[in-house]
């Protein structure tokens, strides 16, 4: 999808699906089959976003993509740690049932940040090439 529609579009779709699925996850609590299905769909949306994000970063700094990807990987690891910490606090102060809501708000915040970042109007070389095809 990132190759045909562009990295920004794929990031928008991935983050939108993630937030919607996390919202639905909060509504299927107690139904094990529903929880498993939602988590599987959420992971598909999550892992679909990552290659698009990497493509976007590489097109932003074509002379040193290795540095951009290594910084990206570091922030991904930081996000894992931060998310685990937030999840632990949510479980400690409330219950497991609020994790979907907390995840929804965090991913929705990421979507808003992506919209803000991409609204600057800068078009990457990859997007110009894909539009010309």
Task: Sum this structure up briefly.
With 133 residues, this protein is an all-alpha fold. It has six helices and no strands.
Helix and strand content put the structural class at mainly alpha
Q: Number of domains in the coordinates? A: 1
Indicate the low-confidence ranges by residue numbers: none
Q: Average pLDDT value? A: 87
Which secondary structure elements does this structure contain, and how are they paired or packed?
Elements: H1 2-5, H2 7-27, H3 32-60, H4 65-93, H5 99-118, H6 125-132
Structure description:
With 133 residues, the protein is mostly helical. It has one domain (2-132). It is built from six helices and no strands. Helix 2 packs antiparallel against helix 3 (32-60), helix 2 packs antiparallel against helix 5 and helix 3 (32-60) packs antiparallel against helix 4. It is globular. The protein starts with a helix and ends with a helix. The model has no long low-confidence stretch (mean pLDDT 87).
Descriptive labels:
mainly alpha
């Amino acid at each position: 999808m990132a190759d045909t529609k562009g990295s920004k579009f794929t990031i928008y779709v991935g983050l939108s699906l993630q937030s919607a699925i996390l919202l639905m996850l909060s509504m299927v609590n107690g139904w094990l089959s529903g929880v498993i299905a939602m988590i599987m769909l959420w992971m598909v949306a999550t892992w679909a976003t990552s290659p698009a994000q990497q493509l976007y970063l590489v097109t932003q700094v074509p002379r040193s993509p290795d540095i951009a990807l290594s910084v990206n990987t570091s922030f991904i690891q930081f996000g894992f740690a931060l998310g685990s910490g937030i999840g632990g606090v949510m479980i400690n102060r409330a219950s497991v049932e609020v994790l979907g809501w907390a995840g929804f708000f965090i991913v929705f915040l990421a979507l808003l940040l992506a919209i803000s970042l991409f609204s600057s109007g800068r078009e990457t070389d990859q997007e110009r090439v894909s539009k010309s095809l």
